[in-house]
UniProtKB/TrEMBL annotation:
Residue intervals of the Helicase ATP-binding domain: 1-270, 6-290
InterPro entries for this protein: ATP-dep_Helicase_C, DEAD/DEAH_box_helicase_dom, DinG/Rad3-like, Helic_SF1/SF2_ATP-bd_DinG/Rad3, Helicase_ATP-bd, P-loop_NTPase
Protein name according to UniProt: DNA 5'-3' helicase
Gene3D superfamilies (alphabetical): P-loop containing nucleotide triphosphate hydrolases (3.40.50.300)
């Protein structure tokens, strides 16, 4: 992998590298990256990997190569502005409209905070103020104990609401600006996919200029770009915009914003939840038209913001909120065929719009004037790189170097190569992939009786040490109820306590089972004998009511292809590979992955494709073989 990256740096070809868990891929890309003249940017999808790079891998390799470089290389962590406390907002945090803190859309199921919480909120703000006076970074992650999102929102500023260092009275002391300054001077800049996405869409002026970009956890990038390019309208957000704009606009202009928010509330109530196909409903069109007009008048009234304005920070906040609502309303009214719109009713009512595909955006913005190395443990689906390459905006297909350790060949599409470096794990000897082919095809949601009986038999054979990955919260809850009723094992259910605490209990208690839904499929790392059975209740296809997936599938169908094969199957393949990857985390691990969905064996076409996307475990459909293996593991 290191040799291939060195070659890519010299040639300028982009490189996709699949590197299984345990290969040491971060050291494999850091070593050649530090030979580059100028800053190198590394983007990750998770905070855990960011922390590993900054706290462990970079200091370790920095000390090792210091004798060769004559100095230790420097590195910096770059996050979005909202991760840092804003001194200007902090100065005025006690002057904000009480409704901003007492009525918060994300605070409870009803969207309303109890009035009694305002005292607790004030104490949190005061603690942030004391901490900010002593902090060198102003980074929220360094505030311990932390504060809730409502408190942090009152003292932080998203990039779109920032007035700019030159016009802000606190510009010279701004924590976000200081973090950018540190990044500009560093040899290695570690950032995240979300900020990288915003940087691409904002003309590449946030992340320091660089010649080499390394994207770790690259299978997540397209989804993060989709999220960054997504916009939404909610009545609460429009109300907040109106309150922010009220000091700077006339009474009628403020009232028109309030009326537009009311129209949006009515339009959302009249429109069923789900994807909007065809023309926008009349109520939604009326609401967006009112919002477009009201926000344009508000923006015109505010005009240009100048440094000598009495309150440029709040004025910029009002202007940016108006501009965001205006652009989203206009985007929806344009009814662009490349966008997908849908209505959500839970957890709050919202009108959402997102791009049908981001492959074109990535193809245009990601690769220009820099070499890109994309790596992950999950980059091949069905045995090749084509699907992931297409999602990342690359032409397909290159001639893939299929054998681990082999040099990559030239791509047939211009500009990229690929390499699968394999894994240090001996999967056929360390693990079994068992498919319960005798079970009926999954139908209704929840946990069918036959599936529950299969789960119980597997768990009892091993005696715990089971990670259960379920397709729905209902199925996970029913599984927990079953195991609690039929066994004496400790059953940990996601949602009962904070996830890090549940994972720690699972790791420490050999007689426990941890059951949960999608966030467990990627975020759990439990090496050793604490986890020797991973159970997956059904293949993780996207639900038919997932707006983006269903729209993308429909677009492929309309073009004469198979939307199910082109969209749903790859999504399931990535999710399944991530879930299966929870089992073997070190060279000494042993265990069983049990998939309780017969389609993985019986479905023609996609069943084989999904199996080819998984590590090469020893494969069986015989229950008696697996139960004997689990009993031997339990006894040992």
């Amino acid at each position: 992998m290191t040799a291939a990256i060195s070659t890519a740096i010299e040639s300028g070809d982009h490189l996709l590298v699949q590197a299984g868990t345990g290969t040491g891929k971060s050291l494999a890309y850091l070593a050649p990256a530090l030979t580059v003249d100028g800053p190198v940017v590394i983007s990750t999808a998770t905070l855990a990997l960011q922390s590993q790079l900054v706290e462990k891998d970079l200091p370790r390799i920095g000390k090792a190569i210091a004798p060769l470089l004559g100095r230790e290389p420097t590195f910096a962590l770059l996050k979005g502005r909202h991760h840092y406390v804003c001194l200007a907002k902090l100065e005025h945090s006690d002057e904000q409209d009480p409704q901003d803190s007492l009525f918060d859309a994300g605070s409870s199921g009803s969207g309303v905070k109890w009035l009694g919480e305002s005292g607790r909120l004030g104490k949190q703000i005061e603690r942030i103020r004391d901490w900010a006076m002593e902090s060198d970074t102003g980074d929220r992650d360094e505030l311990d104990p932390g504060v809730d999102d409502t408190a942090w929102r009152m003292v932080s500023t998203p990039a779109r609401e920032c007035v700019g260092a030159a016009r802000c009275p606190y510009g010279p002391e701004c924590f976000a600006e200081l973090s950018r300054a540190r990044a500009r001077e560093a040899d290695v800049v570690v950032t995240n996919h979300s900020l990288l996405s915003v940087d691409m869409m904002a003309g590449r002026h946030i992340v320091p200029e660089h010649k080499l970009l390394i994207i770790d956890e690259a299978h997540e990038l397209a989804d993060r770009v989709s999220s960054a390019a997504q916009a939404e309208l909610t009545p609460d957000a429009v109300d907040r915009t109106a309150r922010a704009a009220r000091p700077f606009v006339e009474g009628e202009e403020y009232q028109s914003l309030v009326e537009a928010a009311d129209a949006l509330t009515v339009g959302l109530a009249e429109t069923p939840a789900g994807r909007i196909t065809g023309k926008l409903p009349t109520g939604i069109v009326e609401a967006c038209t009112l919002l477009d007009g009201a926000t344009r008048r508000g923006l015109s009234r505010i005009g240009e913001i100048k440094a000598e304005d009495p309150d440029p920070v709040r004025k910029q906040q009002a202007k940016s909120l108006l501009d965001e609502v205006s652009k989203t309303a206009q985007r929806l009214l344009e009814d662009n065929e490349h966008d997908v719109a849908w209505v959500e009713h839970e957890p709050r009512r919202a009108l959402v719009v997102a791009p049908l595909s981001v492959a074109g955006l990535l193809g245009e913005k990601l690769y220009e004037d820099r070499t890109v190395i994309a790596t992950s443990a999950t980059l091949t689906l069905g045995g090749n790189f084509d699907t992931l390459a297409r999602s990342l905006g690359l032409p397909v297909s290159p001639k893939t170097a299929a054998k681990p350790g082999a040099a990559p060949e030239s791509a047939s599409g211009p500009g990229w190569k690929s390499l699968d470096v394999g894994s240090p794990f001996d999967y056929p000897k360390q693990g079994i992939l068992y498919v319960a082919a005798h079970l009926p095809r999954p139908a209704a949601s929840g946990l069918p009786d036959a599936t529950g009986a299969e789960l119980l038999a597997l768990v009892e054979a091993l005696g715990g040490r089971t990670l259960g990955l379920f397709s729905s919260r209902k199925a996970a809850q029913q599984a927990a109820e079953l195991l609690r009723a039929k066994t004496n094992l400790t059953v940990l259910l996601q949602g009962d306590e904070a996830l890090p605490l549940l994972v720690r209990k699972f790791r420490e208690d050999r007689n426990s089972c941890l059951l949960g839904v999608m966030s467990l499929w990627q975020g759990v790392d439990v090496p050793g004998d604490a986890c020797q059975l991973v159970v997956i209740d059904r293949l993780p296809f996207p639900r038919p009511d997932e707006p983006l997936a269903s729209a993308r599938s429909a677009a492929v169908d309309e073009g004469g292809g198979s939307g199910f094969a082109a969209v749903s199957v790859p999504i399931a393949a990535i999710r399944l590979a991530q879930g299966v990857g929870r089992l073997i985390r070190s060279t000494s691990d042993k265990g069983v992955v049990a998939v309780l969905d017969s389609r993985l064996e019986t479905a023609r076409g996609y069943g084989a494709f999904l199996r080819a996307s998984l590590p090469p475990f020893w494969y069986t459909t015989k229950q008696e073989v697996v139960l004997k293996s689990l009993k031997r593991l339990g006894e040992s």
